[in-house]
TrEMBL record:
Family named by the database record: Belongs to the oxygen-dependent FAD-linked oxidoreductase family.
Organism for this UniProt entry: Prauserella flavalba
Species lineage: Bacteria, Bacillati, Actinomycetota, Actinomycetes, Pseudonocardiales
Cofactor: FAD
Keywords recorded for this protein, A-Z: FAD, Flavoprotein, Oxidoreductase
Domain of life: Bacteria
Protein name (Swiss-Prot/TrEMBL): Oxidoreductase
Amino acid sequence: MAAPTIATLHDRVRGPVITADDEGYDEARKVHNAMIDRRPRAIVRAANVGDVMAAVDFARENSLALSVRGGGHSVPGFGTCDDGVVLDLSGMHSVWVDPSARTARAEGGATWGDFNAATNAFGLATTGGIISTTGVGGLTLGGGIGYLDRGFGLSCDNLLSAGVVTADGRFQVASAEENADLYWALRGGGGNFGVVVSFEFRLHPVADIYGGPMFFELDAAGDLLRTYREYIATAPEQLGGFPAFQIAPPLPFIPEERHGEPFIAFVACWTGPMDEAERALAPIRDVAPTVAEHVGPMPYPALNSAFDALVPPGLQHYWKANFVTELTDDAIAAHLEHGPKVPAVNSTMHIYPINGACHRVASDETAFAYRDANFATVIAGMWPDPADNEANIRWVRDYYEATAPHSEEGGYINFMAGDDQGRIRANYGGNYDRLVSVKRRYDPDNLFHLNQNIRP
Ligand SMILES: Cc1cc2nc3c(=O)[nH]c(=O)nc-3n(C[C@H](O)[C@H](O)[C@H](O)COP(=O)(O)OP(=O)(O)OC[C@H]3O[C@@H](n4cnc5c(N)ncnc54)[C@H](O)[C@@H]3O)c2cc1C
């Protein structure tokens, strides 16, 4: 494309347009996963909804690839592209809370840190991710799994309405009353249907929680996973949290001589009455003595940012994921073989519970289909040095291959690597055909294809 065309883009938007000629281009093209090294023609830092409309129009009119970036956490790097336009929403991150209606409206580029800080001021929260730097946008559109999902459902289950710029450059509202098919598809269908410039969420009274990480010796891992499987099936829904294979980071609450060793951890989040918290955690505690722990009352945003330092920008990422209905003894045996081999302090494997309120939504009520699954697993490979890519990717793949036979065919789209595009149909089960028909209606030419793509 000749330079004058980019000049037109400059004229059409209020936010900065960054190209390879600009200082800051290399910084602006980065996404969270440092393995992704792409060179877009232009990065538009949208300042408002008008900029979003203009960038969408510009990409469509010039037949350019369009990447939509919220928090930039997509592991396959969907938030950037070669040769196309990156629509970077990070400048649009305001959050407004209506405490009397118990709702909040977040702009399309807000992170969970932005969101939780705003809502916690009113003693309110909704289900979001476990790391504060993840974007509200990508996480919610894929479903949204986090500490609060057993009690309040997935993030997308709390989405009341969305303001969307569709492929034709028009602003449309999606809710139960308006464009109900689009509203259905946005709740789990990923970034396939348009650019969401605002998300309206239902909030719940959650201010301080009781929780944090507990580290147990690896020889307790089998008992812990079996106890977790039984207990979480009927545990009070105020209990969230997950088991993890985790190398001990150099934190003051962990004995120094144990830093760098692998453990089985349990990260807890109790949102019920404080004086009932320890009773709720007792079945997990009774498995074995903890080697180290940092458990107690804290504001919900403190837990949401407690592990941010383990996943700074600039790591290499390779992830695999599955939904699990029954965590069988054979599955646990596979975890016991591969989990303790976790190769880097940043890497981990989590088994998130997605029962409770998530199960009270029917499989066809939202695009997120796996409403009978009890768990979502993620094998999250994250490490600093590209020289270690092969060994770390191997760990993720071996672990995945050992656990996949004990899992559902599909997995959570937000936990998947770029080489999982072949699993899209399985990820949506019976909802896939309906997603295709909504895609045909709102994006017939597949302008929004840099995602876990539903082809029109
Ligand atoms: C460190 C880390 C922790 C994570 N923890 C969790 C977790 O606890 N729970 C969980 O469910 N997931 C989690 N994830 C996965 C996360 O949900 C996905 O990576 C998600 O895509 C991140 O959204 P983002 O906006 O940050 O990403 P981006 O890379 O900015 O966006 C990813 C894709 O989402 C779409 N998108 C983003 N914003 C918009 C928007 N406003 N409008 C339209 N499309 C948009 C686009 O298709 C975009 O390409 C985590 C990921 C990382 C790296």
